[in-house]
Amino acid sequence: MMSKALHALLMTTTLWGTAVEAKSENDKNPFGLVYQGALVENQKGKVNIHTVSYKLNGVDISANVYTPASYDSAKKYPTIVIAHPNSGVKEQVAGLYAQRLAERGYITISADAAYQGASGGLPRNVDKPANRIEDIHGMADFIAQYPGVDSSRLGLLGICGGGGYSLQAAQTDKRFKAIATLSMFDSGWVRRNGYQDSQIDTVQQRLQIASDARAKEAAGGEIIYTGDAKLTDEQIAKLPFELYRQGFEYYGKTHAHPNSTFRYTLSSLLDLMRFDAVSNMDLINQPLLMIAGSKADSLYMTEKAFKLATGTDKKELFKIDGATHIETYWVPMYVEQAVNTLATFFSNSL
Description:
By secondary structure, this protein is α/β, with parallel strands linked by helices. It contains 12 helices and 10 strands. The protein has a single domain, classed as 3-Layer(aba) Sandwich (Rossmann fold), CATH 3.40.50.1820. α2 links the parallel β3 and β4. The longest helix is centred in the last third of the chain and has 18 residues.
């Protein structure tokens, strides 16, 4: 019989697994984009997408840069760095918001995290907070040198897990003049205590399992992965939280991408479970906007972070009425509200 700790570990780490039998409606997009209204070709005078790559601490990073309509490299544009969710890649929700903000006149960049997606790094799917924070610094490094970028007007948008990592990056990286999050997810809090603190009683057992996995790696044994559950529709419907149920649909079906997986090394939990996205929030002195759905069962994480952001007097919590966590990723009317709010915020802040 599966131990309670192992069951808790699977529930904590397997948010939406890797069952990607179904195809998304945009699976033939030439740029690999899987969101509604995605670019299908670059046209003069319109928003364009540019595939780029660069080195970050010896790892090849794959990124997309979006340039606004009638982009002129001789001019200077405000620019936004966008960090994707856990299990996500740049072709999903991060790309959607990158494109929509480019339509508002910004240069935007979204990169696959190191060790994940189309970026390099071995072993594959290492998922450590320090790496994800460094990814954000690295995007700023690269985009600051891109033609047309006004590095004095650099903003940051973090989505889901990328939101938690963005809060940490912005605390010390003052190149970011304005910070925004969408459906912020505190990866450490959830890996440690379970979603909505549902697995506090198994913390020590799960840490032991992760420690054993690292010991096996260090001894030259196989790398153990977690997050590989393949669930039926009936099993998905029985998942305990709406984020899990809708997330499985989004990542596994409607917006599936071959590079997107929630699979990661079990030993990564040693780093994840001691991470706290909202520690030292008082270090953020830049303007801060936090967006979340009013019906999101993850809203508690955004509200906690917002309350702790005492270092700035320019902060706003915007709740999208009726939206859940995953619905802010793709439902047109909710995306429109979020983009309008973001555009106003960055216009005033940058």
